[in-house]
Design brief:
By secondary structure, the chain is an alpha/beta fold. 28% of the residues lie in helices and 30% in strands. The chain has a domain at 115-165 and 234-326: D-Amino Acid Oxidase, Chain A, domain 2. It has helices at residues 33-43, 60-63, 76-83, 86-107, 126-138, 170-183, 231-234, 295-309, 353-369; strands spanning 23-29, 49-53, 68-69, 112-120, 144-146, 158-167, 187-190, 194-198, 203-207, 210-219, 235-247, 257-260, 267-270, 279-288, 312-326, 332-335, 343-347. Strands 3, 4, 5, 6, 11, 12, 13, 14 and 15 form a nine-stranded mixed beta sheet that branches. A hairpin with a 6-residue loop joins strand 12 and strand 13. It is globular, with a radius of gyration of 20 Å. It starts with 22 loop residues before the first strand and ends in an 11-residue tail after the last helix.
Length: 380
Amino acid sequence: MTSSLWHRDQTPIVGTPFAPDARHDVVIVGAGITGLSTAVMLAEAGVDVAIVDAGPVGQGATGASMGMASLLQGTTLAALRAHHPAGLVKAYVDANRAGQEWLAERAGAAADRRTAFTFGRGLSTDPALDAVRDAAREAGLPIREDAPGDLGGRTPVRALALDDQLALDPVALSRSLAEAALAAGATLHTGVRATDVRALPTGRVDTDHGTIFGDTVVLATGTPITRRGLYDLKTRALRSWAIAFEMEGDVEAPGGMWSEVGTDGRSVVAAPSSFGRGVLLVTGARHPVGSAPSEVALAEGLAAWARRTLPVGAEIARWSGQDYQSHNLVPFVGGMPRGLGRLRFATGYAGWGLTNAPAAAMRLSDEIRGVSRSDRPQWM
């Protein structure tokens, strides 16, 4: 992955020097949205938390994100409903809503409120859009049919709309969460690569700087760094390309957040106003890792589509990102098999981590603290 739009020159978050053999209540591996949200929730509840990450805050999948925190999520709800009962889909939506609300409080004015659209072109896309509409309404989302004349002024579409969703800068959000965790007493070690995790005699994380111990270890990585539970076989890695463009001339960027039905998984969103300049982001060319004969051709095809379809000017950034989809389309969150209650993890967000991650963090923090919350929805 080349550097994404969000990785601007920034002063590094100042963490804590690594002390081998240090002991904490909880050690979190991963300083993305999942790990940092979990750290904030725990540290603000008085739990002694340490975070380790091989890179800077908000790298990995978080830094490759498009910045869309939406409950509509393209065709995700329709896909879930095709394989699961309505109650599970509603629980998934409710959990993501809770995560989105928590994120909105933390992001504050740095997040733009926007309408999310799932769109298609022509009669051939109507069945897919109908399935999204039906699944979303069944799950309690106030979806409305929309018939905008264009997307970016050039392509007729039919769309489904959900108002009051969020567009944000995921790296800026990560930095804000890291600062909140540190302010609450958490320890942050960046540039420390975890190499193994163990559950005996207590939670243990081996790193390239030494070993760190925790009563509980949370693996907030894209996929768990251990084969316990064989989650590498229960998920598949998906890669997408993203390209950022300046707008063409004085044209304003489309105001919503757009996800297209279809196998390419294309989405279009303007950078949030907090970014400070008009930039349009396009993502797509989604494919299982290792299946593409040419990554370059996929990226070029996405760029060509954007130039044909949208009022874009010069390209200013191009990068790829990887996420993971579970075998049954439902994220995995909770205790790890054979982890003796000491190892916990979250994975399988399938590209929608900005709402799934804080939802997972809520569940993880409650379980670690032994808090039973009947008011919090569970989607597994």
